[in-house]
Amino acid sequence: MKNKQDINKMFQEAGILLAITIIAGLALGFVYELTKEPIAYQEALKVQNACKEVFNIADSFEEVEQDVDAATRASSVMDTATENSVKLGTIYKALSKDASLLGYVIEVTSTEGYNGNIEMMMGITMDGTLNGISLLSISETPGLGMRAQEVLVPQFSGKTVSVFTYTQTGAITDDQIDAISGATITTKAVTNAINTGLSYFEQVLKEGGN
Protein backbone atom coordinates (compact mmCIF):
# COMPACT_ATOMS: atom_id res chain seq x y z
CA MET A 1 0.00 0.00 0.00
CA LYS A 2 2.82 2.28 0.88
CA ASN A 3 4.49 1.61 -2.48
CA LYS A 4 1.28 2.45 -4.31
CA GLN A 5 0.96 5.71 -2.40
CA ASP A 6 4.57 6.56 -3.21
CA ILE A 7 3.93 5.86 -6.90
CA ASN A 8 0.79 8.00 -6.91
CA LYS A 9 2.65 10.81 -5.17
CA MET A 10 5.45 10.55 -7.70
CA PHE A 11 2.98 10.82 -10.60
CA GLN A 12 1.28 13.78 -8.94
CA GLU A 13 4.59 15.60 -8.51
CA ALA A 14 5.55 14.79 -12.11
CA GLY A 15 2.19 16.10 -13.28
CA ILE A 16 2.67 19.31 -11.34
CA LEU A 17 6.15 19.79 -12.79
CA LEU A 18 4.82 19.11 -16.29
CA ALA A 19 2.02 21.64 -15.80
CA ILE A 20 4.49 24.25 -14.53
CA THR A 21 6.76 23.62 -17.52
CA ILE A 22 3.88 23.98 -19.99
CA ILE A 23 2.60 27.15 -18.32
CA ALA A 24 6.12 28.64 -18.24
CA GLY A 25 6.64 27.77 -21.90
CA LEU A 26 3.34 29.36 -22.88
CA ALA A 27 4.17 32.45 -20.82
CA LEU A 28 7.60 32.79 -22.47
CA GLY A 29 6.04 32.34 -25.89
CA PHE A 30 3.48 35.02 -25.11
CA VAL A 31 6.16 37.42 -23.86
CA TYR A 32 8.28 36.73 -26.97
CA GLU A 33 5.37 37.45 -29.31
CA LEU A 34 4.51 40.54 -27.30
CA THR A 35 8.04 41.96 -27.43
CA LYS A 36 9.16 40.67 -30.86
CA GLU A 37 7.95 43.65 -32.85
CA PRO A 38 9.21 46.34 -30.41
CA ILE A 39 12.63 44.66 -30.29
CA ALA A 40 12.78 44.44 -34.09
CA TYR A 41 11.79 48.09 -34.31
CA GLN A 42 14.51 49.14 -31.86
CA GLU A 43 17.11 47.10 -33.76
CA ALA A 44 16.06 48.69 -37.05
CA LEU A 45 16.18 52.13 -35.44
CA LYS A 46 19.67 51.41 -34.12
CA VAL A 47 20.84 50.53 -37.64
CA GLN A 48 19.24 53.63 -39.12
CA ASN A 49 20.91 55.84 -36.52
CA ALA A 50 24.31 54.23 -37.10
CA CYS A 51 23.94 54.78 -40.84
CA LYS A 52 22.78 58.35 -40.29
CA GLU A 53 25.94 59.06 -38.31
CA VAL A 54 28.11 58.42 -41.37
CA PHE A 55 25.65 59.62 -44.02
CA ASN A 56 23.71 62.47 -42.43
CA ILE A 57 22.24 63.84 -45.66
CA ALA A 58 20.37 60.60 -46.38
CA ASP A 59 16.72 60.24 -45.40
CA SER A 60 16.58 56.44 -45.17
CA PHE A 61 18.72 53.33 -45.58
CA GLU A 62 17.96 50.04 -47.28
CA GLU A 63 19.98 46.85 -46.87
CA VAL A 64 21.40 45.37 -50.07
CA GLU A 65 22.67 41.91 -50.88
CA GLN A 66 26.42 41.56 -50.75
CA ASP A 67 28.37 39.97 -53.60
CA VAL A 68 30.67 37.61 -51.67
CA ASP A 69 32.99 36.97 -54.62
CA ALA A 70 33.31 40.68 -55.27
CA ALA A 71 33.98 41.27 -51.59
CA THR A 72 36.90 38.85 -51.82
CA ARG A 73 38.22 40.67 -54.87
CA ALA A 74 37.91 43.97 -53.05
CA SER A 75 39.99 42.64 -50.18
CA SER A 76 42.62 41.33 -52.58
CA VAL A 77 43.72 44.85 -53.56
CA MET A 78 45.66 44.72 -50.30
CA ASP A 79 48.41 42.29 -49.41
CA THR A 80 47.61 38.64 -48.65
CA ALA A 81 47.53 39.17 -44.89
CA THR A 82 45.02 41.99 -45.23
CA GLU A 83 42.84 39.96 -47.59
CA ASN A 84 42.34 37.46 -44.76
CA SER A 85 41.85 39.99 -41.99
CA VAL A 86 39.36 42.51 -43.39
CA LYS A 87 35.75 41.42 -43.73
CA LEU A 88 32.82 43.29 -45.22
CA GLY A 89 29.58 43.20 -43.27
CA THR A 90 26.14 44.56 -44.05
CA ILE A 91 25.77 47.14 -46.80
CA TYR A 92 23.01 49.74 -47.07
CA LYS A 93 21.82 52.08 -49.79
CA ALA A 94 21.67 55.69 -48.63
CA LEU A 95 18.48 57.16 -50.07
CA SER A 96 17.03 60.65 -50.34
CA LYS A 97 13.40 61.53 -49.55
CA ASP A 98 12.41 60.73 -53.13
CA ALA A 99 14.30 57.40 -52.93
CA SER A 100 17.18 58.60 -55.13
CA LEU A 101 20.45 56.78 -54.51
CA LEU A 102 22.94 59.07 -52.76
CA GLY A 103 25.57 56.48 -51.96
CA TYR A 104 26.21 53.56 -49.63
CA VAL A 105 26.97 52.73 -46.04
CA ILE A 106 29.38 49.82 -45.63
CA GLU A 107 30.06 47.89 -42.45
CA VAL A 108 33.62 46.60 -42.31
CA THR A 109 35.65 44.74 -39.70
CA SER A 110 39.41 44.43 -39.32
CA THR A 111 40.96 41.66 -37.25
CA GLU A 112 44.34 43.41 -37.38
CA GLY A 113 43.74 45.53 -34.29
CA TYR A 114 46.31 45.38 -31.51
CA ASN A 115 43.78 44.05 -28.99
CA GLY A 116 41.14 42.51 -31.24
CA ASN A 117 38.62 43.36 -33.93
CA ILE A 118 37.88 46.90 -34.99
CA GLU A 119 34.38 47.32 -36.41
CA MET A 120 33.33 50.43 -38.27
CA MET A 121 30.76 51.89 -40.63
CA MET A 122 31.69 54.12 -43.53
CA GLY A 123 29.47 56.28 -45.73
CA ILE A 124 30.48 56.81 -49.37
CA THR A 125 28.72 59.15 -51.79
CA MET A 126 28.25 58.16 -55.43
CA ASP A 127 31.24 60.26 -56.52
CA GLY A 128 33.46 58.23 -54.20
CA THR A 129 33.75 60.78 -51.40
CA LEU A 130 34.17 59.27 -47.95
CA ASN A 131 31.27 61.05 -46.26
CA GLY A 132 31.90 59.81 -42.73
CA ILE A 133 33.29 57.03 -40.54
CA SER A 134 32.10 55.68 -37.20
CA LEU A 135 33.97 53.15 -35.07
CA LEU A 136 31.36 50.72 -33.74
CA SER A 137 33.70 48.57 -31.67
CA ILE A 138 37.33 49.06 -30.70
CA SER A 139 39.37 47.87 -27.70
CA GLU A 140 42.86 49.13 -28.35
CA THR A 141 45.42 50.40 -25.83
CA PRO A 142 44.11 53.39 -23.79
CA GLY A 143 45.88 56.60 -24.72
CA LEU A 144 47.25 55.06 -27.93
CA GLY A 145 45.07 53.00 -30.28
CA MET A 146 41.92 54.09 -28.46
CA ARG A 147 42.53 57.57 -29.88
CA ALA A 148 41.52 56.29 -33.33
CA GLN A 149 38.10 57.97 -33.26
CA GLU A 150 39.68 61.25 -32.20
CA VAL A 151 42.83 61.20 -34.37
CA LEU A 152 42.19 58.99 -37.40
CA VAL A 153 38.50 59.33 -38.24
CA PRO A 154 38.53 63.10 -38.96
CA GLN A 155 41.45 62.64 -41.38
CA PHE A 156 39.45 60.33 -43.68
CA SER A 157 36.18 62.24 -43.77
CA GLY A 158 35.33 64.38 -46.79
CA LYS A 159 38.09 63.00 -49.02
CA THR A 160 37.73 61.47 -52.47
CA VAL A 161 40.55 58.94 -52.54
CA SER A 162 40.84 55.44 -54.01
CA VAL A 163 43.52 54.13 -51.64
CA PHE A 164 44.79 55.66 -48.41
CA THR A 165 48.28 55.25 -47.01
CA TYR A 166 49.55 56.23 -43.58
CA THR A 167 52.74 58.03 -42.64
CA GLN A 168 54.65 58.81 -39.47
CA THR A 169 56.35 61.88 -40.93
CA GLY A 170 53.32 64.10 -41.56
CA ALA A 171 50.64 63.83 -44.25
CA ILE A 172 51.16 66.12 -47.23
CA THR A 173 48.53 64.80 -49.68
CA ASP A 174 44.84 63.86 -49.36
CA ASP A 175 45.59 60.16 -49.66
CA GLN A 176 47.95 60.22 -46.68
CA ILE A 177 46.90 59.77 -43.06
CA ASP A 178 48.99 60.74 -40.05
CA ALA A 179 49.51 57.60 -37.96
CA ILE A 180 48.69 57.67 -34.27
CA SER A 181 51.96 58.08 -32.41
CA GLY A 182 52.83 54.76 -30.80
CA ALA A 183 49.87 52.96 -32.41
CA THR A 184 50.94 52.04 -35.94
CA ILE A 185 49.14 48.69 -35.73
CA THR A 186 45.81 50.37 -35.03
CA THR A 187 46.42 52.93 -37.77
CA LYS A 188 47.19 50.18 -40.27
CA ALA A 189 44.10 48.17 -39.25
CA VAL A 190 41.74 51.12 -39.70
CA THR A 191 43.36 52.25 -42.97
CA ASN A 192 43.27 48.79 -44.54
CA ALA A 193 39.63 48.29 -43.53
CA ILE A 194 38.63 51.61 -45.09
CA ASN A 195 40.59 50.85 -48.25
CA THR A 196 38.76 47.54 -48.58
CA GLY A 197 35.39 49.29 -48.29
CA LEU A 198 36.43 51.86 -50.89
CA SER A 199 37.60 49.12 -53.23
CA TYR A 200 34.28 47.28 -52.90
CA PHE A 201 32.43 50.49 -53.64
CA GLU A 202 34.49 51.19 -56.78
CA GLN A 203 34.47 47.62 -58.11
CA VAL A 204 30.91 46.59 -57.27
CA LEU A 205 28.55 49.20 -55.92
CA LYS A 206 29.45 52.15 -58.15
CA GLU A 207 29.69 50.18 -61.38
CA GLY A 208 26.96 47.67 -60.64
CA GLY A 209 24.43 50.20 -59.41
CA ASN A 210 23.02 47.87 -56.76
List keywords for this structure.
210 residues; alpha+beta; five-stranded antiparallel sheet; two-stranded parallel ribbon; 7 strands; 22% strand
Description:
This protein is an alpha+beta fold and 210 residues long. Helix content is 47%, strand content 22%. It has six helices and seven strands. Strands 1-2-3-4-5 form a five-stranded antiparallel beta sheet, sandwiched between helices. Helix 2 crosses helix 6. The longest helix has 53 residues.
Topology:
Layout: H1 2-54, E1 60-64, H2 68-75, H3 80-83, E2 86-95, E3 101-110, E4 118-125, E5 130-137, H4 148-151, H5 153-156, E6 165-167, E7 176-178, H6 184-208
Parallel strand pairs: 6-7
Antiparallel strand pairs: 1-2, 2-3, 3-4, 4-5
Q: State the assembly state of the protein chains.
A: single chain
How many DSSP-defined strands?
7
Report strand order across the widest sheet: 1-2-3-4-5
Please write the string of helix (H) and strand (E) elements.
Answer: HEHHEEEEHHEEH
What is the residue-averaged pLDDT? Answer: 79
Radius of gyration using CA atoms only: 25 Å
User: Number of DSSP helices?
Assistant: 6
User: Structural class of the secondary structure composition?
Assistant: alpha+beta
**What is the terminal-to-terminal distance?**
78 Å
Q: Give the strand content.
A: 15-25%
Low-confidence stretches: none
The description of the largest β-sheet is:
5 strands, antiparallel
Helix fraction bin: 40-55%
